[in-house]
Design a protein that fits this description.
about 600 residues; alpha/beta; Rossmann fold; 4 domains; 5-stranded parallel sheet; 4-stranded antiparallel sheet; 29 helices; 16 strands; globular
């Protein structure tokens, strides 16, 4: 495969080189001819070829080629009418726009799709594709500097000036994987830089992947494509594909259970079901059970027909101890927001985990070897680094650690997240697991306090909002698109704490704001007509005028009026009613629990 790709690349890169030369004018022309050569572009293609090699849950001991295991039906996207889908897409040109945001939940195959897309573009020889994992970005620097550094590392000696030229040529394609894996504190800065880059260089082709609500929701440049869940037909095709035609028993098990059909709509969960069902004929009752069986399954995967046989472990830990220590490692690393770490950090996590479970810390090296070689849930990733085989593994076992933790640790965790958007971004999927395995505490210690905090309820249960707080709810980067007559065309909502944890609440707030704006069309039209030339031209687009929402409200002097309108909309809303009902129900449950604990 490597030989075939480079052969294709080498024989056809002349056209890309010729096209770039044809657009280079003036003093930059001679510099471009030194940098953009067929030889250098071949080096870029070669550097990207590591993307071909992957490991899978169903065969973690071997590196396989992506084209042997990739299922094209996973690259299907929802349309605006979510019951319809488009795709599968295999090339960047399929999207019909230069800036693309691929959104998908945990395990929907975003990274595998991005890798396959890059390899397809190498073969298609239309662009210079460059794959960049955003988790590797130096957040103290800028994205542009990181991309220039990557190009130099790949064999293109690019300067700032040459970069600015190349991104105007329509020949550069950057595939940026994992926006959500950037530290939450760095995402706003990177999002802002992306907006500036594509505004300045509209021909710059970028395809970026992310989980939803990670911070790109307010972009007017990136068109969002949401990965569609696997339907029954594609589920069966996926199983048949990864099992090489030997998946009939698994397909029968899927067909026999509507619940399992409904849950295994992502490639990851379907792969996990395939692994666990082949090993144990296990049919889970909820999402958490999918993950609960992973550890014992992977622990004994080397001899699945003799599940009572314990393969020798250097750490000498039993099953129970091994899993508990692994949970602590997951929690400690997620607390640091690290899915990939060097050996030194891994040893630190392992040492603390052993100590917390009252086990000798001299087993650190043996434990790391056992986790890597026996379970493959944390694997070698380069010379001196390790990474979780999938981020959801880290997130689920962190939830298990919290579930069994002492009450003060759990309470401290939940209270830390109430109103803390940046922290919730790190722990969002762990919270989803806790909503299943620790439901009462999750609702009592996190959901109800979060709901009350979100609405800023006073002692009488009435919302006490301020405009500054309202901005944090809808996000300061939100923009409104209007016509010249003041008609509201659309609102581009930024991602916020509320959008991440309380959809019903933020939908109520957003609906109220949109209703308020529609009632003020005359004022909005008047505002547009009096913009100065620079502001008018800056706001004007082909589809209307795009104006920052906060700026519009402020300059119309409508802050207090908007706050009052939104507050009135919240009173009596379904969100408020549900909050009261939830709190009353939890109090009843707590009273019953106290009654059961009374042995007097």
């Amino acid at each position: 495969m490597i030989e075939s790709i480079t052969k294709i690349a080498g024989s056809t890169l002349d056209k890309i080189v010729t096209d770039i030369y044809g657009t280079a004018k003036g003093h930059i022309s001679s510099e471009i001819k030194k940098v953009i050569t067929v030889h250098n572009l071949e080096k870029v293609a070669q550097k990207n070829l590591y993307l071909e090699n992957v490991k899978t849950f169903y065969d973690p001991d071997h590196i396989v080629k992506i084209h042997d295991i990739y299922y094209p039906g996973s690259a299907v996207f929802l349309t605006e009418k979510s019951e319809n889908v488009i795709g599968p897409y295999g090339y960047s040109g399929s999207f019909g726009c230069n800036q693309v945001l691929i959104e998908g939940g945990p395990g929907q195959g975003k990274t595998l799709f991005m890798r396959k897309l890059c390899l397809s573009e190498i073969k298609a020889k239309r662009y210079i594709p460059v794959f960049f994992e955003l988790r590797d970005m130096d957040c103290k620097s800028t994205l542009k500097k990181s991309l220039i550094g990557l190009l130099n590392e790949y064999g293109l000696p690019v300067t700032n000036e040459i970069f600015d030229f190349l991104v105007t040529t329509d020949k550069m394609l950057f595939l940026l994987d994992g926006f959500d894996e950037l530290p939450p504190t760095s995402r706003p800065k990177v999002a802002k830089e992306l907006e500036k880059l594509v505004h300045k260089f509209p021909n710059l082709r970028i395809i970026m992947s992310s989980r939803p609500d990670a911070g790109m929701g307010g972009s007017i440049y990136f068109r969002s494509f949401k990965l569609a869940p696997l339907n029954p037909k594609r589920q069966d095709e996926f199983v048949d594909h990864i099992m090489k035609g030997d998946g009939s028993d698994i397909i029968k098990a899927l067909s026999a259970s509507k619940y399992i059909r409904d849950v295994t709509t992502s490639p990851l969960l379907l792969a996990l079901f395939t692994v666990t069902y082949k090993a144990r004929q296990f049919r889970p009752d909820d999402l958490a059970q999918f993950y609960s069986i992973i550890f014992p399954t992977m622990l004994y995967r080397h001899d699945r027909r003799k599940l009572g046989y314990e393969r020798q472990r250097r750490s000498m830990l039993g099953d129970f101890q091994f899993e508990k220590v692994f949970e602590v490692i997951c929690f400690l690393s997620l607390k640091k927001n690290m899915t990939r770490f060097n050996t030194k950090d891994f040893k630190l996590f392992a040492s603390k985990a052993l100590h917390s479970e009252d086990i000798d810390q001299d087993r650190v090296d043996a434990l790391i070897e056992d986790i890597n070689l026996i379970t493959s849930l944390i694997i070698k990733d380069g010379y001196d680094h390790y990474a979780f085989s999938h981020k959801t593994i880290q997130e689920y076992f962190s939830a298990e650690y919290l579930r069994r933790s002492e009450q003060n640790i759990r309470k401290s965790f939940y209270s830390h997240l109430v109103g803390n958007y940046k922290a919730v971004q790190v722990w969002q999927s762990t919270l989803n697991f806790l909503s299943i395995i620790d439901r009462k505490n999750y609702l009592m210690e996190f959901v109800v306090p979060s709901r009350k905090s979100l609405a800023k309820l006073d002692v009488h249960g009435n919302p006490k909002l301020t405009f500054n707080y309202l901005e944090t709810l809808y996000s300061k980067v939100s923009k409104v698109m209007v016509r010249e007559d003041g008609t509201i065309e659309d609102v581009f909502w930024g991602d916020s704490f509320a959008s991440a944890i309380a959809r019903p609440f933020i939908n109520t707030v957003r609906g109220a704001i949109k209703g308020f704006l529609k009632s003020k069309s005359n004022e909005v039209a008047h505002y547009i007509s009096f913009l100065d030339v620079k502001a008018y031209e800056s706001a004007c687009t082909e589809d209307g005028f795009v104006i920052n929402l906060s700026k519009l409200i402020s300059e119309l002097h409508m802050k207090k009026e908007l706050v009052s309108f939104v507050s009135d909309s919240l009173v009596g809303s379904m969100f408020m009613q549900r909050t009261v009902e939830m709190e009353d129900t939890l109090k009843e449950i707590e009273n019953i629990t106290l009654e059961m604990a009374d042995f007097g």
